[in-house]
Specification:
The protein is α/β, with parallel strands linked by helices and 411 residues long. Helix content is 40%, strand content 9%. The chain has a six-stranded parallel β-sheet. Strand 1 and strand 2 form a beta hairpin.
């Protein structure tokens, strides 16, 4: 292979980075160039493929340092035995690209990952050096997310947290058995130890003491990603793994990435990718665990196959299996009960609680607050509205799905 120009490397290594979904910046503390005298800044909501509260799309330079890799993970397009075209950036090139793209207003930050070259410490050292030079030499105050390598030294993880807004370590697959089968060179216990080390360091640095102020260390926390559909783990097992990760390591996000078949794949991998709706339903279930008070095991109770229903969202599916607790009175119920109502999001529930301090809510009021009153109507009591026997109708599911489809067709 001849020497590649920067444009060619960018084409190869940006395409290679597309399989990593964990690139949002929710929760990071703001950096601001007005106080540093440098360039760049980061908003409180989302970087790359996300949207700010005002609807503005926020982007970042999302690349691999290299797609060369010493590991031969069966599910990875960049595995050592793959025939993909290879490329490698230097530290200088990544720093220059980031600053140039920022000054041209193409991006607002950097998401940097890498295949493992020669050794985990050498690779992680280069990732950290990129971040260090951006912060200390270029005075860059924009968002930086580093994908960390679990086998690297704790000293490098510590340095990464000083310069990056968010760190992430990919759990890869939902179960240890799946990882050992499809990526035998990786050790799940090493991944967990690195996550635990990051959690400990983030908590340590976030606590001010009498002798020092709170230090900046990965203010956006840590996240992870797992591949869905590469092995036979059902959704119940995936959500169980996610609940354990949130509880044990205080992750900000678990990202779910539907397996994509790759050329010259191992016979142990499926021939077809899972439906993208499965990935979507897992995100919805994840949201229920994080913001709606649902325990992991109750989201799929009553589903013997352990799989989420692809036709309806998991909260509606749960409500249809537990009709006895409905309808809920929107003028009297507490927040926890309202969050269980299909069609009522967390923001809508907050507005309901605020509004009913001054007046009683009618069904038409809810229609102005939420996206689909057809989904809400069978599960609530409001001023002048009672669902009667609608809640217990055998064909309720079909009616809600039909009404939702009709509403979508109007947009």
């Amino acid at each position: 292979m001849g020497r590649l120009c920067t444009r060619d490397k960018l084409a190869i290594l940006s395409d290679a980075a597309k399989y990593d979904a964990s690139c949002a910046s929710s929760g990071t503390a703001n950096r601001n160039s007005r106080s540093s005298g440098g360039i760049g800044s980061t908003e409180g909501m989302g970087i790359c493929h996300s949207y700010a509260p005002d609807g503005r799309c926020i982007s970042l330079l999302k690349i691999l340092l290299t797609n060369f890799c010493i590991y031969d993970c069966s599910y990875c397009i960049n595995r050592s035995s793959s025939n993909v075209r290879r490329a490698r950036f230097t530290v200088d090139e990544v720093v220059k690209l980031t600053v140039t793209f920022y000054k041209r207003n193409y991006v607002e930050g950097l998401f940097l990952s890498s295949g493992v070259i020669r050794s985990p410490d050498e690779t992680m050292g280069e990732l950290v050096e990129v971040a260090r030079r951006l912060r200390e030499e270029e005075n860059f105050a924009g968002y930086i997310h580093l994908k960390t390598i679990p086998e690297c030294s704790h000293g490098l993880l510590d340095a990464a947290g000083r310069y990056a807004d968010r760190l992430s370590i990919n759990i890869e697959l939902p179960t240890d058995e799946g990882l050992k089968k499809l990526a035998p060179e990786k050790r799940p216990e090493t991944i967990r130890l690195s996550m635990a080390a990051l959690r400990s360091k983030i908590e340590e640095k976030s606590e001010p003491t009498k002798t020092r102020k709170r230090q900046r260390f990965a203010a956006g926390g840590q996240s992870t990603q797992m591949i869905i559909g590469a092995d036979a783990t059902p959704d119940a097992g995936i959500l169980q793994a996610s609940a354990r990760l949130y509880g044990s390591y205080r992750l900000r996000r678990v990202y779910y990435s539907a397996f994509s078949p790759i050329p010259d794949a191992s016979s142990s991998l499926p021939l077809k990718k899972p439906p993208l709706m499965r990935e979507h339903r897992l995100y919805q279930a994840d949201w229920l665990m994080r913001f709606y008070g649902f325990a992991q095991d109750e989201i799929l109770d009553g589903r013997p196959d352990g799989m989420l229903d692809l036709e309806i969202d998991p909260k509606l599916a749960w409500a249809l299996r537990h009709r006895a607790i409905f309808p809920v009175d929107v003028n009297r119920a507490d927040r926890e009960a309202l969050l269980r109502v299909p069609g009522l999001g967390a923001k809508v529930v907050t507005r309901i609680l605020e509004t009913r301090r001054y007046r009683r809510l009618r069904l038409e009021d809810l229609g102005r607050l939420c996206h689909s009153v057809a989904k809400v109507r069978p599960f609530i009591v409001a001023e002048g509205w009672s669902p009667g026997g609608l809640t217990d109708q055998p064909a309720l599911r079909e009616k809600i799905v039909s009404s939702s489809c009709e509403q979508l067709s109007l947009f």
